[in-house]
Design goal:
The chain is built from five helices and six strands; from the N terminus they run βααβββααββα. The protein is an alpha/beta fold. β2 and β3 form a beta hairpin. Strands 1-4-2-3 form a four-stranded mixed β-sheet. A two-stranded parallel ribbon has the order 5-6. It is globular, with a radius of gyration of 18 Å. Pathway: Protein modification; protein glycosylation. Keywords: Endoplasmic reticulum, Magnesium, Membrane, Transferase, Transmembrane, Transmembrane helix. This is ditrans,polycis-polyprenyl diphosphate synthase [(2E,6E)-farnesyldiphosphate specific]. Belongs to the UPP synthase family. It comes from Polypterus senegalus.
Length: 172
Amino acid sequence: MAVGISYVSVYDNQGIFRRNNSRLMEEILKQQQELLGLDCSKYSVEFLNSNIDNTDQQVLSCKATVNILSPSDGKSSIVKAAQKFCQLVQQQQKRPCDIDVNLLDSFLQGPKGFPDPDLVLKFGPIESTLGFLPWHIRLTEFISLPTHVNITYEDFFSALERFAACEQRLGK
């Protein structure tokens, strides 16, 4: 929050965060208080849980948004996007030939318009994008860190500096 990051996605391969989302929210608020002190009132958190029905979300405000993702989100996102497009075709608002990358991208972002990640901090020794949704990471910079345990402010800031030094080339 203090460095201006408004959207954070946490990819949880085993669903631990999703099952314990209230505890995660408590920990985020506790860390916010400890790290930002009196300035914490300037920042607020929106906590999304990407369940299909979205009944498990807790919202405090929307300065910073945390999105918990799991392997099932990729499949359900594709299904929901296909269903939405088929409904539009059925209602004669779209034709089957109208589907394109921008339309599909808008469907995959969902109602909150959560942006694709610019940076992924990947923890662990394995260099793989397995489990990441390919349409979300097409322009994403990956930075690997050895572990998530006891990550320091210096480690995090160093990763942000490496990202800031990256040159994106969006050529054809």
